[in-house]
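Forwarding the complex inputs:
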Amino acid sequence: MQKKIWLPENEMPTHWYNVVADMPNAPAPPLGPDGQPVGPDALSAIFPQAIIEQEMSAERWIKIPDEVREKLLLWRPTPLVRATELEKALGTPCKIFFKNEAVSPAGSHKPNSAIPQAYYNKQEGVKRLITETGAGQWGSSLALAGNMFDLDVRICMVKVSYDQKPYRRLLMQTWGGNVFASPTDMTQVGRDVLTKDPDSQGSLGIAIAEAVEEAGGNPEANYALGSVLNHVLLHQTIIGQEAKKQLEMVGEYPDMVFAPSGGGSNLGGLAFPFFADKAAGKDVRLVGVEPTSCPSLTKGEYTYDYGDSSGLTPMMKMYTLGHDFMPPGIHAGGLRYHGQSALVSQLHHEGLLEAMAVGQTETFEAGVLFARTEGIVPAPESNHAIAAVIQEALRCKETGEAKTLLFNLSGHGHFDMSSYDRFFKGELEDYEYPEEAIKASLATLPKF
Amino acid sequence: MQKKIWLPENEMPTHWYNVVADMPNAPAPPLGPDGQPVGPDALSAIFPQAIIEQEMSAERWIKIPDEVREKLLLWRPTPLVRATELEKALGTPCKIFFKNEAVSPAGSHKPNSAIPQAYYNKQEGVKRLITETGAGQWGSSLALAGNMFDLDVRICMVKVSYDQKPYRRLLMQTWGGNVFASPTDMTQVGRDVLTKDPDSQGSLGIAIAEAVEEAGGNPEANYALGSVLNHVLLHQTIIGQEAKKQLEMVGEYPDMVFAPSGGGSNLGGLAFPFFADKAAGKDVRLVGVEPTSCPSLTKGEYTYDYGDSSGLTPMMKMYTLGHDFMPPGIHAGGLRYHGQSALVSQLHHEGLLEAMAVGQTETFEAGVLFARTEGIVPAPESNHAIAAVIQEALRCKETGEAKTLLFNLSGHGHFDMSSYDRFFKGELEDYEYPEEAIKASLATLPKF
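Prediction (whole assembly, two chains):
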């Protein structure tokens, strides 16, 4: 039996798949503060034209530029792996496959979108890209991508992470990225924060506001976002397309597809190409797995909310915990977001995509079992999908169902070992975000 | 043009290649303190019979057990990659290929030997494996392997690394390894050291002595070594065999083969299968690349010396700087060894394998250029091979020679980012180990 299924390089997808073309209803548009739909012009200060077109597009297939494919070939197609050793340890009748996105230079799926974003900005004469990063997965991917197309990349890294996670900061610097501890003194937002509190440890909300301010005020600079938006999910669909081809090579098709669910790029990337089949009548279940501490899909409300915590961005119709949601300090940094991609949200709202929440301790238990069977130490985000797959595989062991399960191993945990340390020491908490807090936060929103 | 060359799983080598069969002269035997050759019995207290047989064997091909192949398939065959982006950056007429051993779960080539060692010990009823580790590459690989065959793995980690490199320690713990800061109070050696100096920071010499003492005193425990010995190099020849097949798939053969050279497992693993062709008349140059701070092949003497710094092991005929050589605190921990594999040493002595030394700063410059072109951040050890390849590629740019160059990317640098930090801060030193110190150290040795 084959352990790893390799797709030949010349079969790497040539187009991204746009799920909008197959959704039963058109996506709800983003709205401005006046409650009116936001047009492309509002975005042109911070995004290149090609990205704005993708954000608004309803075309089913969008061509991947040759220059982007050439760079993706550094590590793509990624392997699809049969988790034989995990199957044995569980004693399950299920077949478990995972798509290994951890093999990218940055160690996660994030470069799949960072590279086209850098490319389109370069094409349109942009000299500098600015972004924010929490734990550093997206920041390191954009540093890698910016270096490929000779762009100056500036990363506002939340100060507490800047100080506590020096390794991922160094990774960005190795690829030539300029990393700043946010709040910085380069922006008005940053200076205001520092005036009030010179010892501020920063937050993702402040870092986003700083990045957007600097990008908006400089005609040669743009902003880049690593999840949530339609174009980001579009770029990630290369994952699911490859997985479909690879499963086909061994005569398989998944009954269920699992991915961690934070801003949606991980989930959309793997699941949307399977949604195309589901829309055509195929029986396949798509499942987003989120933390119980940040349960936007399972406990949030489907309503218009801001994309950022400061209320600067247009409002999107999405599952949200309220934009002033204060995420507890859980270790899956990539899943600490108050909202959810509008596309994922709409599909979930329409009953076409499921969601479940898993507690933090269970996710690390799953990750350690995975490391001790399949070898790879997963990122804390990926542990959510693994925990869900293990639940299903053990359920099937009871019922005797021999399902085919597929999940996204979105990244490795080499830069997250301190989180494993806290798990081994029994210091991790299983935080359930209180429903009253969600209600109180959502009550402050304007209703459209 | 193909970027990555994948070998199908069913073409992964079924046998290890034993270079002894093709060496023009039989290997010089290891000697005991009396100057007499050491027989298999002397090793049986700490090694299983199958390993001792391999250590002494002159058979050309030794079968890889099916159970070992099954585990190696978790990540093998590893990709052979054409370093197209590095070639462009250098503007060289050369073709540069690298074998990417960084894709293993432990992030280096070390599991190639850890897995068979764990397997043979399990087969012979051993319950516990004990080893030492400096920076942690070998310790993490043995933890991974021990977990696969349900062995208790104990790792004596040099205390200064235990304290300063918690991430790699956590990696060992994730795979179930028991890590102890050496000196420990579990052994006589450790207790003696602690009595004299309760604050001892440890050394690799102390850690080896502790591991050997504990393994020798427990009939259910054995010792495992990650480099230097014949059987370790044997297990690593899967690297070069795969690389040959992969080059053949694209119609190439290397003019020169480069690998970092510390204890010899990296170099022997890639180069020995090409030596088989060289012995049959093929024109191929094999080059070991070592640090100027630890120049055993380029400045050491070819003589009998102890394998460890305390003089406990049998003596081997090898290039050595003297077993009481004090390696400076360079950042390629895997290359800080006073001696060199007896097999590599003999081939070098007979003019069949070349060696060169590179300064530390140049190796990190090479690693950063590699990361900024090919994406992957290399281990400091691997940077030595990259620096040598860059030297040759630039030399060929001058002369117009279009050579095919192959090197071993033996590991990634995800757990070595603090070394990159010191490089970026300009804090790395280019240490040249003084020849007088080598002479003084070697003068103390008995001559055989």
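The two ends of chain B are 55 Å apart (CA to CA).
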